[in-house]
Amino acid sequence: HITPEKFYVEACDDGADDVLAIDRVSTEVTLTVKKDVPPSAVTRPIFGILGTIRLVAGTYLIVITKRKKVGEIFGHAIWKATDFDILSYKKTMLHLTDIQLQDNKVFLSMLNHVLSVDGFYFSTTYDLTHTLQRLANTSPEFQEMSLLER
């Protein structure tokens, strides 16, 4: 969900009420609930957040807008990110000079080129950041940690 003040990322899990709120001015990230999302927010589906990047015009949020299932590991779906959106935290570019606007446009073009190259894979339930061999040799405590904690 997008409002002029915040980005809201809603979990799609059944029964999940948590919403990640990203302030577009302070860049503060907080956890809130679905009822806090304004009804006026523009809503569209995404499949994940790739990250943020700071360019000349300010900070941008990079989200995955399309995905393709490429396989499974032990019943866990593995996805290939096939399309992205780069969302500006800033509502306007009026604060930039013509040279800064041109530089920002070049950097966005470079970023779009990098994102168009194959090789961005993810899983929402399986740890792709460690090899199967390493995962087999980890402690039970490590196995019980969430993917974020790992």
Automatic annotation (TrEMBL):
It catalyses: a 1,2-diacyl-sn-glycero-3-phospho-(1D-myo-inositol 4-phosphate) + H2O = a 1,2-diacyl-sn-glycero-3-phospho-(1D-myo-inositol) + phosphate; a 1,2-diacyl-sn-glycero-3-phospho-(1D-myo-inositol-3-phosphate) + H2O = a 1,2-diacyl-sn-glycero-3-phospho-(1D-myo-inositol) + phosphate. It comes from the Eukaryota. Its EC number is 3.1.3.64. One of its GO terms (biological process) is phosphatidylinositol dephosphorylation. Keywords: Membrane, Transmembrane, Transmembrane helix. Coiled coil: none annotated. Pfam families: Syja_N (PF02383). One of its GO terms (cellular component) is endoplasmic reticulum. GO terms for molecular function: phosphatidylinositol-3-phosphate phosphatase activity; phosphatidylinositol-4-phosphate phosphatase activity. The chain crosses the membrane at residues 46-64. Residues 47-140 form the SAC domain. This is Phosphatidylinositol-3-phosphatase SAC1. The lineage of its organism: Eukaryota, Metazoa, Chordata, Craniata, Vertebrata.
